[in-house]
Structure formats: C-alpha cells, structure tokens
C-alpha cells in the first residue's frame, strides 16, 4: 500500500475517472491480480473508491452494513442478490442497503465507483478493514 500524497477531503475535489482508471491498470497489483483500487474521498462518514477490475475477475461479496452504491463507469459486471442474478453495463448504478450483493464479477475490463456512507460508528471501529481504508 502506497503512502497517500493527495487530498482525500476538502470543500471541493474533482477527478478525471478515465485517467485514474488508466493509472490503476498500470499498477503492479492490477497486472498481478486483475484488480486495483484508489480511495478518492475519505471523510468521517463517507468514502469514494475507484476500482479497475479485469474481465472475469471475481470481486466477491460486498457486505452492506451501511448504504453503498456501485456504479459501472466502464465495462460491466454481474452480481447475485436475494432477487436473483443481475447484469450491469456502463452507466448503471447499484444501490444496496443493509444486506449484500454476492458473487460480483467483472464481465469486461471495468471501472467501478464504490460509494460508502457510514451509519452509527461503521468507519470508527478500531481494527476493522473497510474498502476505502485498504485502497490507496
């Protein structure tokens, strides 16, 4: 994990997602595992994480103790929830509250934007790994 030398919070932050996805795809982690992520915003109760995921790479199951959104910026993904199996394409947005989306898998080389909004003390628990905390 690299040291973060960019602002993660402030009154206004702007990002070029296509450029950042290109950078993520050049990282060693992406070449090795087909996945790389970067935290764009990290505030007390709010996280935004950009993920680059190669075609057919399994992202896994996302536990949603708090509300989350997952937006397909590039490519596509599939996932399963209690309502069945679903496909998402570029421009689609998934919201899930308490519960889970399972078996999330890229169906093309993809760029995903994960937004997490904490409730209660979700981001303040010591030793708990959050998606936004592990990304650089």
Task: Describe it.
- By secondary structure, this protein is mainly beta.
- It has a domain of 82 residues: Jelly Rolls, CATH 2.60.120.10.
- It is 15% helix and 46% strand.
- The protein has 3 helices and 9 strands, in the order ααβββββββββα.
- It has a 5-stranded antiparallel beta sheet. The protein has a 4-stranded antiparallel beta sheet with strand order 3-8-5-6, with no helix packed on it.
- A hairpin with a 2-residue loop joins β1 and β2.
- The longest helix is centred in the N-terminal third of the chain and has 10 residues.
- The C terminus is likely disordered.
Q: How are the SSEs placed, and which strands pair?
A:
Elements: H1 17-26, H2 28-33, E1 35-43, E2 46-53, E3 58-64, E4 68-74, E5 76-81, E6 84-89, E7 93-96, E8 99-106, E9 110-117, H3 131-134
Antiparallel strand pairs: 1-2, 2-9, 3-8, 4-7, 4-9, 5-6, 5-8
Question: What would a concise description of this structure say?
Answer:
With 136 residues, this protein is mainly β.
CATH hierarchy, class of one domain: Mainly Beta
Question: In percent, how helical is the residue content?
Answer: 10-25%
Let me know the CATH homologous superfamily of one domain. Jelly Rolls
Order of helices and strands: HHEEEEEEEEEH
Rg value: 14 Å
Strand content: over 45%
Question: What's the total count of β strands?
Answer: 9
The name of the CATH topology of one domain is Jelly Rolls
Q: Which strand order do you get reading across the main beta sheet?
A: 1-2-9-4-7
- Main pleated-sheet profile: 5 strands, antiparallel
Q: By helix and strand content, what is the structural category? A: mainly beta
């Amino acid at each position: 994990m690299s040291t973060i030398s960019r602002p993660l919070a402030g009154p206004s932050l702007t990002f070029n997602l296509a450029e950042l996805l290109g950078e993520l795809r050049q990282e060693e982690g992406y070449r090795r595992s087909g996945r790389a992520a970067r935290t764009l915003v990290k505030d007390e109760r709010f996280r935004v994480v950009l993920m680059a995921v190669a075609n057919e790479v399994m992202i896994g199951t996302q536990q949603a103790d708090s509300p989350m959104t997952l937006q397909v910026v590039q490519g596509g993904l599939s996932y399963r929830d209690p309502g069945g199996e679903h496909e998402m394409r570029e421009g689609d947005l998934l919201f899930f509250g308490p519960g889970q989306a399972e078996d999330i898998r890229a169906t093309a080389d993809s760029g995903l934007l994960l937004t997490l909004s904490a409730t209660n003390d979700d981001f303040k628990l010591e030793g708990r790994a959050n998606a936004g905390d592990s990304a650089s």
